[in-house]
Design a protein that fits this description.
It contains 2 helices and 4 strands. The chain has 119 residues and is an alpha+beta fold. A hairpin with a 2-residue loop joins strand 3 and strand 4. This is Methyltransferase.
């Protein structure tokens, strides 16, 4: 019957500890530590400036790719016009029993209110 003996590594085979103050430590493929200097400060992201065209301010990031203005009110009015044209100026789909002049409409969350004015 054979007995299994534990294997002891000599102290010379043990890697020496590396101080890790502000250094980044990684292990190489053979298991030895690889010390690298910490990365420098991250570069600041380049933010493109907005530009003004025809009295409206547009995003400068990827100029020309996003065709709507930065101002939310202008953008919402343009969307209202798009949907009005797409729906042939039909402002509602609900069946109305009485004339529109006699109805009351609660304007909640309809943007700039241009829909309620057109209604």
């Amino acid at each position: 019957m054979s007995s299994i003996k534990p294997v002891q590594k000599s102290l010379r085979e043990q890697p020496t500890p590396v101080p890790v103050d502000s250094m980044a430590v990684a292990m190489t493929s053979n298991g030895t530590p690889c010390v690298a200097a910490p990365p420098g400060p991250a570069p600041e992201p380049r933010i493109a400036e907005n530009y003004t065209e025809n009295g409206r301010e547009y995003h400068g990031f990827r100029r020309g790719k996003y065709m709507f203005p930065c101002d939310e009110m202008d953008r919402m009015d343009i969307f209202h016009k798009f949907f009005s044209v797409a729906r042939c100026d039909v402002l509602h789909s609900a069946p109305l029993s009485s004339p529109v002049e006699e109805l009351r409409i609660l304007d909640v969350g309809t943007g700039t209110g241009i829909w309620a004015i057109d209604m």
